[in-house]
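Final paragraph of the annual report: two paired records, presented back to back.
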Amino acid sequence: MIKFVLNAFPRTGSTILYYMMKKGNPNAIHLYEPLHDKLFLLIKEEGSAFHKVESLWDGYQKLPKKTLLEMQMKHRDCTNLFCFADIEPYLDVIHAVDAEIMMQPNRMHFILKDMAQKYGCKVVHLCRKPADCFLGFAEIFAMYGKDLTNNCSWWIENIYGFVYFFEKQYEAIAQKFHAPRADNFLDKWLVVWTYQNYYAAVQADNENVMFVFFEDVVDGDAIKRIEEFAGIKLGGAEIIDKKRVYLSDDKFKAEIDKRIDALGLREMVEEIYEIGGVK
């Protein structure tokens, strides 16, 4: 059964918390990114080569073969997931497993309350301030850029995939919520960051759904609060590298703030910060 869900906006430290979740709860089955559009290809081929930590995908090998086949048949593209019913049959298959399931998706922002109500699980959504979050994407590409000559196809495909992924999310959000129109990629990304984290934040009741900033995991008491809220353990906190958390300088933070105001997103962003308990 599904016991715990760690949902997150991408590049918010979710892989780190997933590693800590695995470390602290070794008897559970851990499912990394179960809504990823290329999940079954990644399980088969990629493993953990990208992240360079112990296998992220080995939890799927602990599932019954029949369960994996059912999951594959019911799996769908969740790039833009607004309705719980669209993914419910897939999640029902996972919930039917006779073991504690803990999973880390990055696409459940709009259905967190539905998850908690349907499966009786605890749900945490992980956020990160926008300037550092955006630069987190640049950091990962720079980190692997040194391998460009060895594997240029992988590098280029992943940069293209990053842009295409958020472009698709922006268009869907703009259409559904009449979100501000934006012409350049950074503004589109800010719209996506704001709307996905805002709708995740307003679902938080601290009984079934909790909203947490990664900054509070690094420098606050969020680890303890998550453990008490969800009844789980988070081990291996030494994996957190503060140098990779705070990436932005004041100039870029000011630029992000200027764009948030120009897009008319300030009220939503301030509510995200208030619910998350950060300034």
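The closing record of the year follows.
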Amino acid sequence: MLRQLFPPNRGWHFKADAATVSAHGGRLGQFATAPRPPLGRERNLHSADPSLQRDNPSEAIASVSDQALFELAPVTLSLTDHSALWVTFQALRAQGVQDIADYFLSDPRRLQQCWQEVVLLRVNHRALSMYEACSETEMLARFRETIHPERPADLLHWFVALWNCHSDLQHVSCDTVRYSLKGKRMDVRLHATVLPDSPSPWSRVLISAEDITAKLAIEKENERLACIDHLTNLSNRRDFIAKAATELSRAQRYNAPLTILMIDLDHFKNVNDCFGHHV
């Protein structure tokens, strides 16, 4: 799975003799991890089984290499267990729930209940940096703080995306809001896929997260600049036509009166010529 995300022909090279990763010609050095309990049957993300080195050396090398790639990947990665949420979703479908957004909005506490069913198993170094965690242990213990307790609706887009995806969860993406452990708000874009050897549905979900806060801020500023006159900071013709069309549709929908007022100031050019446009 990770090899598909970061294939060798994109600058990542695997060394058969050691868990060494070279990125775009630069050596990142030998990678080693402390022994950790296996997370499941997937070989790519848990520590190499010593028996593999005897029975299948190439498989053991692939396992260690993929661990290195997970840790040193240039994107934020986390391994999660959504199996309990999958069971809940199946039960809701059996009960006849069709619109999961309405189900959650009718009682926002349900969002928190489903959030408690998600388990974070592992994160890489980029995730620790993004969420301002000192260690993986701290991140695993406090990851629920990435959702503001007074804003459970931030979970809505993510859960709706999961609900609408196929049961095998080959790929799902959505834009939502998360918080760092120090309280910094972030607009994030999440991409998720289930690892192929997951022991049960959604039990091993690999999620990448991108902080798009700055990108959205630039987009909003560009939208604002496209709608105003830079000299007067008033709406330009394009913005006026769009807003006028909206108000006209509203008046027609509710059969309400609509008034348009146009003001023309005589000899205003003289004001500009005498005192300047800034006046």
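The first strand starts at residue 12 and ends at 14. This concludes the annual technical report; the extension proposal builds directly on these records.
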